[in-house]
Amino acid sequence: MTYPTETLTHSDIWATTADLTTLRHKLLDLFSQRAYQEGDFVLASGLRSSYYVNKMQVTLHPQGALAVGRLLFPLLPVDTQAVAGLTMGADPMVTAVSIVSVYENRPIPALIIRKEAKGYGTKAYIEGPTLPEGAKVVVLEDVVTTGQSALKAVERLKDAGYTVNQIISLVDRQQGGAELYQSAGLKFETLFSIQEVQERYRQLANS
């Protein structure tokens, strides 16, 4: 779906609503209308699927990005010292949460984790502010399938001396990721199950 470039009226700008329940419904609509597609796809995990969630259609959408930040921020434990995720799917997510955290008077920095070490300069795996040893970091993930991507981020952060106990995703495809995290001793939360997205997709298609 092409993004409309016309100027929105104030009533069209839903991402600033104070009601987080309404905000969640609007974000679900955005996933269902813009990100969810049916067809024949090969996923990053190598699995074939009859559907695909093009999450960047939401996390790089102006209202979608703000909604993601506002809905994920309250899920962070009060002692969270940073949010982090594997590039590039999590990049807009950690940025959105970090920006929202300033408006909530609880600034939380964002970390971006490279898939391969940078080939020059510091040759680092992790980009962003350097945190104290043992700092508590929450990993953010866009869409969880097998769970391997977020687990790789967890491993990189632990190798850097940080503490990671939790992963939060936007959508859980429910194909083993949650079980993998549980076996690794990690708490897992998701904003939406894939069933919610699919149900809303069909409701909108039939309306």
Write a structural description.
- The protein has 207 residues and is α/β, with parallel strands linked by helices.
- The chain has a single domain (12-205), classed as 3-Layer(aba) Sandwich (Rossmann fold).
- The chain is 36% helix and 24% strand.
- The protein has seven helices and eight strands.
- The chain has helices spanning 20-35, 56-59, 62-72, 91-103, 148-159, 177-183, 194-205, and strands at residues 36-42, 48-53, 82-86, 110-113, 126-127, 136-144, 163-172, 187-193.
- The chain has a six-stranded mixed β-sheet with strand order 5-4-3-6-7-8, with helices on both faces. The protein has a two-stranded antiparallel sheet with strand order 1-2.
- Helix 1 (20-35) packs across helix 3 (62-72) and helix 3 crosses helix 4.
- It is globular, with a radius of gyration of 17 Å.
- The chain starts with 19 loop residues before the first helix and ends with a helix.
- 37% of the residues are buried.
- The mean pLDDT is 92.
Features:
six-stranded mixed β-sheet, 8 strands, 7 helices, Rossmann fold, alpha/beta, glycosyltransferase, single chain, pyrimidine biosynthesis, 207 residues, two-stranded antiparallel ribbon, orotate phosphoribosyltransferase activity
| Assembly category | single chain
Q: In one word, what is the shape? A: globular
The N- to C-terminal Cα distance equals: 17 Å
Radius of gyration: 17 Å
Helix and strand run:
HEEHHEHEEEHEHEH
Per CATH, the class reads: Alpha Beta
CATH architecture: 3-Layer(aba) Sandwich
How would you sum up the major sheet?
6 strands, mixed
Q: How much is the average pLDDT? A: 92
Instruction: Note the total helix count.
Output: 7
Strand order, main sheet: write it out. Answer: 5-4-3-6-7-8
> How many structural units, i.e. domains?
1
Poorly predicted parts:
none
Our estimate of the beta-strand percent is: 15-25%
CATH topology: Rossmann fold
